[in-house]
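call fold target=Acetoin utilization deacetylase AcuC-like enzyme
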Amino acid sequence: MLKIAFHPSYIHPLPAKHRFPMEKYELLPQQLLYEGTCEPDNFFEPEILNDKYILAVHDAEYYYDFLNLKLTQKEIRRTGFPLSRSLVERERLIAGGTVQAALYALEHGAAMNIAGGTHHAYTDRGEGFCMLNDQAIAAQYLLDKGLAKKILIVDLDVHQGNGTAEIFQNNPAVFTFSMHGEKNYPFRKEKSDLDIGLPNGTNDEAYLAKLKEILPNLLEKVKPDFVFYLSGVDVLATDKLGKLSLSIDGCKERDRFVLQNVRDKNLPIQISMGGGYSEEIKHIVEAHANTYRLTQYLYM
């Protein structure tokens, strides 16, 4: 059974000006239940993760300053969110949801987190609406528990996974692959194990050709025993913060290709949603819902 992490705290701690497009976290489960893609049993409420697993990735000074609401104003501005107790709980729940989803993926083949994809969080700081790096925490958890030996992180959000690249820059057990807009945030890129920077306006044909050229060979080369996938839909032409030009159908084909290639190799995969900032919420929800529909179809 496909398991999906969702918690009401994914949206409610956020101030009103940040609710759009974050309301997708509420609308996605509603849409998936309404159309019959998922049943209530597909969803689980994550638990707050033990600090020791977060500290395996994040510096203690940064984490405890965040936990105790002691970040400086400069550090808070860098994250983009006002700091609050409920925000801290939200971030810990998201990280816990991705860890639990990774464990479900080991059992069922695939599992998802309605939130997550917080790839701009560094070892020692937060950036770009990301405070704790959920997939990095989950990847390190699997390695430390002996549940995986070689991990591939496939980051197809429109923004480079700079925090993830920094966290694992000296860890040969994790291969970081980021395909993103070359001239988009972050403007100072980190070095992933493989970075593909795409020019502004990249369309379906060019995007998919590049992905199909790279991913099968990468799976053969890296030989992972677990895959994390960040399936941001800010690659859409309608996205306010992206500079690429994919259609909803192109984004769907991107997901299908990733999921099918991982499925063909019988590899477990955990999927976090990442970004999506189109003007109309229906475009965000539809593009994200396609990821769930495809995963449910391939892993049912």
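return ok
The longest helix spans residues 85-108. The radius of gyration is 17 Å.
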